[in-house]
UniProtKB/TrEMBL annotation:
Gene3D superfamilies: 3.30.450.90, P-loop containing nucleotide triphosphate hydrolases (3.40.50.300). This is General secretion pathway protein GspE. Signal peptide: none annotated. It comes from Fischerella thermalis CCMEE 5318. It comes from the Bacteria. Keywords: ATP-binding, Nucleotide-binding. GO terms for cellular component: plasma membrane.
Length: 394
């Protein structure tokens, strides 16, 4: 505790903050070279009852050099996203909570289009990474430069691709949609639980349904789950109850190895260090690195009709799943089957969403099978058309 004020003051000095100001929050930035690459640290200080609280957010520039194929492991999902990004005009929404990797995904999408002859402009608050060959504008609200103002200025600069850091209000959303309808590809972010929820969010902002349906190409929802340590993970067999909680059954998961993280307490870590048994890869954390979980909803004619009819989010989600959308839950469970993460991580990340019940319902509707011939059944079928077995028993 004695060194905390000195450490706090040192961080403030390096980040060019006012060390004498302890009553107001402050924001700063530290830039350092680490193993030959540039790493930025966004520094935020907050006065509290017991002293200043300091949070550092790590921004690794090497992350912006990752292609979409390095982020999205599912081939079908990757193909859909790449097809969306290659469009000449339209609106693409990326949704998810703070810290879910939205910025990295957006920058990777821009990298797909960043080539000579393509005019790309971004407006951000703040600019997190420097992107070569791209015009980047920082929001300065006190000077009157907000997202909508910058976006309108971009339209007079003959752009091909536009990125809006965040759509927070009706004016920004309307300007972005108008840009998408006039021959520009626009990428922006929203804060929603899942991809279908983005439609309702735009509606809440006051955007007319016909403008949403005519401009929107698709929505990419995402999360980040921790990657289980490959060197100390523990194989185990989930119970029937555990599998049922995630909409799975033991018969479906035959031959799949599930893993738990070998997470140690602070006391166990110290003991393992003393005995020389501490995992050198994860240092007892049980996880090493993170991987993305994605849900892509590409707007089809059926979804356009539902949007124009102002259908509820649950109905939009059901139709999207029926048309092949892989949900956040389905994608994360694929990562579990591959041994990349754990059911505990799925519980922590995916199961916190309020839309989970609708997700499971949609998943069940599209996974109906005939109890006699195991053929796939559509939700509206009452009998199996292949063997005429009634879907429902008397």
């Amino acid at each position: 505790k004695k060194i905390i004020p000195a450490v706090t003051a040192r961080f403030k000095i390096i980040a060019n903050l006012d060390i004498a100001e302890r009553r107001l929050p402050q924001d700063g930035r530290i830039r350092r070279l680490f193993e030959g690459r540039k790493v930025d640290f966004r520094v935020n200080t907050l006065p509290s009852r017991y002293g200043e609280k300091v949070v550092l957010r790590i921004l690794d520039n090497s992350a912006t050099q990752l292609g979409l194929d390095k982020l999205i492991t599912d081939p079908e999902t990757l193909h859909i996203v790449q097809e969306m990004v290659s469009r000449p005009f339209g609106l693409i929404l990326v949704t998810g909570p703070t810290g879910s990797g939205k910025t990295t995904s957006l920058y990777s999408a821009l990298a797909e289009r960043n080539e000579p002859g393509i005019n790309i402009s971004t407006v951000e608050d703040p600019i997190e990474y420097s992107l070569p060959g791209i015009t980047q504008v920082q929001v300065i609200r006190e000077k009157g430069l907000d997202f909508a103002t910058a976006l309108r200025a971009f339209l007079r600069q003959d752009p091909d691709v536009l990125l809006v850091g965040e759509t927070r209000d009706k004016e920004t959303a309307k300007t972005a949609i108008e840009a998408a309808l006039t021959g520009h590809l626009v990428l922006t972010t929203l804060h929603t639980n899942d991809a279908p929820g983005a439609i309702a969010r735009l509606g809440e902002m006051g955007i007319e349904p016909f403008m949403i349906s005519s401009s929107l190409i698709g929505v990419l929802a995402q999360r980040l789950v921790r990657r289980v340590c490959p060197d100390c993970r523990i194989p185990y067999t989930p119970t029937v109850e555990e599998l049922a909680r995630y909409g799975l059954s033991a018969s479906q998961e035959v031959g799949i190895t599930f893993y738990k993280a070998n997470t140690l307490t602070a006391e166990q870590i110290e003991a393992a260090k003393t005995q020389g048994h501490l995992c050198p890869t994860c240092n007892g954390v049980g996880y090493k690195g993170r991987c993305g979980v994605y849900e892509v909803m590409r707007i089809s004619e059926n979804l356009q009709t539902l949007i124009n009819e102002e259908a509820p989010t649950e109905r939009i989600k059901e139709v999207a799943v029926e048309e092949g959308m892989k949900t956040l839950l389905a994608y994360s469970l694929d990562l579990v089957r591959q041994g990349s993460t754990t059911l505990e991580e799925v519980e922590r990340v995916t199961f916190t969403d309020t839309g989970l019940e609708a997700e499971l319902k949609a998943k069940r509707k599209t996974s109906l099978t005939c109890r006699t011939c195991n053929a796939g059944l559509r939700p509206e079928w009452l009998d199996c058309p292949y063997c005429m077995t009634p879907r429902f028993q008397d």
